Amino acid sequence: MTATLAHWPLWKLFLFRWAALYGLLFFSGGFWNRPWHSLAVWAAKLWGHDLLAQSGPNGSGDTLENYIFCALWLVAALLLALIWSLIERRGTFTGKLAWPAHTLLRYVLGWYLLYYGWSKVFQSQMPLPDLVQLAKPLGEKSPMGLLWTMVGVSPLYQIAGGWAEVVSGLLLLFRRTSLLGAALGAGVMAYVFLLNLSFDVPVKLLSGHLLLYCLLTLVPFLPRLWAFIRGGSVPAMTYPAPPQQPVWRWVGWVWRVLALGIILVLPFQQVRQAHKLYGDWPSSSKLVGIYQVQTDSVAPNQDMSFDVRWHTLVIGDREYGNGNQPPVRRAALTLVNGTRTLGNYQDDPKTSTLTLFMSGNNEAYQYSHNGFGDLVLKSATRQLVLTPKPEGTLLTTRGFHWVNERPLNR
Question: Is the pTM for the entire model greater than 0.85?
Answer without folding.
Answer: yes
